[in-house]
Amino acid sequence: MPQRVVHHSACPLDCPDLCGLAVTVDEGKVVEVDGDRRGPITDGFICGKVRKIAQHLYGDHRVLQPRVRAGAKGSGAWRTVSWDEALGLVADRIASIRARAGGEAILPYHYGGSNGWLTEGALATRFFRRLGASNLDRTFCAAATTAATQGLYGKLPGVALEDFEHARLIVLWGVNPSATGIHLVPVIERARGAGAKLVVVDPRRTPLARRADLWLPVRPGADLPVALAMIGALFARGHADRAFLAKHAAQVDELHIRAARWSIADAAGVAGVEAKQLDRFVELYARSSPAVIRAGWGLERNRNGGSAVAAILALPAVAGKFGVRGGGYTMSNSDARWGVSSESAIGEPPTTRRVVNMSDLPGALRDLRDPRVECLFVYNCNPVATAPDQAAVIAQLAREDLFVVVHEQVMTDTAAFADVVLPATAFLEHRELRRGYGVMRMFDSPAVATPPGEARSNNQLFGALIERLGLGRPGDAVTDDELVAATFAAHDNGAALRAQLAEKHVATPGPDPRPVPFVDVFPSTPDGKIQLVPPGLDREARGLYEYRADPGTEAHPLALISPALATQISSTFGQLREAPGALEMSPHDATVRGISDGDRVRVWNATGNVECQVRITPDVRAGVCVLAKGLWRKHTHNGFTANALVPAAFADLGGQAAYNDARVQVAKLEAV
After folding, report:
1. Residue 40 — very low, low, confident or very high, per pLDDT cuts 50/70/90?
2. Which CATH architecture has domain 67-138+340-492?
3. Which of 256, 290, 335, 663 could be a cystine partner for 552, CB 3.0 to 4.6 Å?
4. 144-331+527-540, superfamily in CATH?
């Protein structure tokens, strides 16, 4: 007789919405997932990715037991071993490398955008800090945006997603909620139903761009001059809120000087949009209140990324859009006013060991000396599918002298090159403590399903390695319960948050999860003011707001961008995708190259080469082509994906990977 039980959980996947879930479990196995109503954003509905999570949990790709390589790397030859044997092998190799070459010869490689404080940080971070391992600078996403937002505003909560309903103008700049945060879409539609205007700035005509009042298909990397021209026009036309700026901002005159270098016509020319359309945007923004900008992470992934984000987020300050519900901007709200962090549970302070930029993995593995990296430990990440310069990543992972450990839920493209693969739990199979970076809510979600096979959580794995290598200390928090208690105990707000979680199973960072910027909350900068040209960022960027020209050449003229798929979270769930990857390009660019819809094409530059099908669509502007991120090697004809075309180049702030600075050529391949 089936024993179905409904449990409450939450989705930790890399999405701003942090949905509450109702999970139906039968004898430890997930049979149905739906949304619950503990948060008004979820409101009972969830995305198709999570609704079909059982396919991920119980599919053929799931890793069920530890595996040790039995042939050449990438050959697919494995032998199944016990956890004891696998842990012994890993611990012995790490101990040997550490004794001979030092801890920095070990590099943890992780991102954890789809993980909370219990599975990104916690015992994993404790383990690598106590080893003295190299530190990883996590720069795939949010590095430049974090630098820009904190430089200008500190940790200031943005406009709550729920409050977009109050806006009279909504600007979606470099973000596609239809794929990456679907719960904002009905909020936007309610606002539009009440008369709000919608502007979308994106090289693609996204689903919301098709319904927008104004679509600006700005060339990748040209968002900076567009934002600066808007700032200059606001000042020149008397739309700048001088009273607000005098009270709340610093470096006002310097921003004005730098923005005034760009006219509407010049910015429109560089961005490839009509000057009259950009002029319309300026006037619409100036005359609308409340007006809110939803800035996305597509903005930062180019040579001008940090400056572009800073200029865009300066717009509501210059135009005086703060101080009303639904007015201002939203970027990430992950650290907003919580008063707690995961650091206290780690139990080991940050080290000053060398720092490795994860966006240059091939360079680190190839070039670092004193010591060389001899062990790469991958968890919460799939670098073969996500890191720049894919061919070079594969070449380094295939080295016999590099010991590669992968802790993973399914056999990813990266796991194929491991020496040891360890089965990992997925969310719903382990406890997770997670706060949202869109919605300002926190969930403490218990494990509701039984892990299949011998899968273990990150904390179980790294706790065992800490014990085997003698890195434990008396009083260490070890269990999930102890780690959660340590997280909250070290902070003044911890007891209140724990009480909320115990009573309501959801917590908010303050009495109102929808604070109004410059009414309820203010910048946390040292002087409490908006830093419009922060000196530190100015030095790091070697001139904040200085435009770096497009890297396209005659040989490689097309800008390649790699936005998210609606069916995946980066590469997660890619094993379930059966459809082949397809390059999207405009009718104009296809015609001049003699390419027809459905043709097989070669996409190449000096970094790599991808062979795939092509889809011709008017939704992509001329001069731009699209190959979605997160595809697996099986999805193209030659086993390389978009990141094979991304050079190891960086944005102006934060060491951010410049994915959208890939410039390529495309040609039709003759039928084989």
Report:
1. confident
2. 3-Layer(aba) Sandwich (3.40)
3. 663
4. Dimethylsulfoxide Reductase, domain 2 (3.40.228.10)
Structure tokens belonging to residue 14: 């890399």
Report yes or no: 544 and 152 within 8 Å, Cβ to Cβ.
no
* Span 651-665, pLDDT tens digits: 999 999 999 999 999
Helix H, strand E, coil C: the string for 557-586 is: CEEEECCCCCCCECCECHHHCCCCCEEEEC
Quick one: average pLDDT of 420-448? 96
User: Tokens 């000096």 label which residue?
Assistant: 606
Question: Are the beta carbons of 498 and 487 closer than 8 angstroms?
Answer: no
Quote the mean pLDDT of the chain. Answer: 96
- The domain limits of the chain are 4-57, 67-138+340-492, 144-331+527-540, 558-668
User: Among 3.40.50.720, 3.30.200.210, 3.90.550.10, 3.40.50.1580, what is the CATH number of 4-57?
Assistant: 3.30.200.210
For 87-124, the pLDDT digits (tens) are: 999 999 999 999 999 999 999 999 999 999 999 999 99
Which residues 6+ apart lie within 8 Å of 133 measured at CB?
Answer: 103, 104, 106, 107, 108, 353
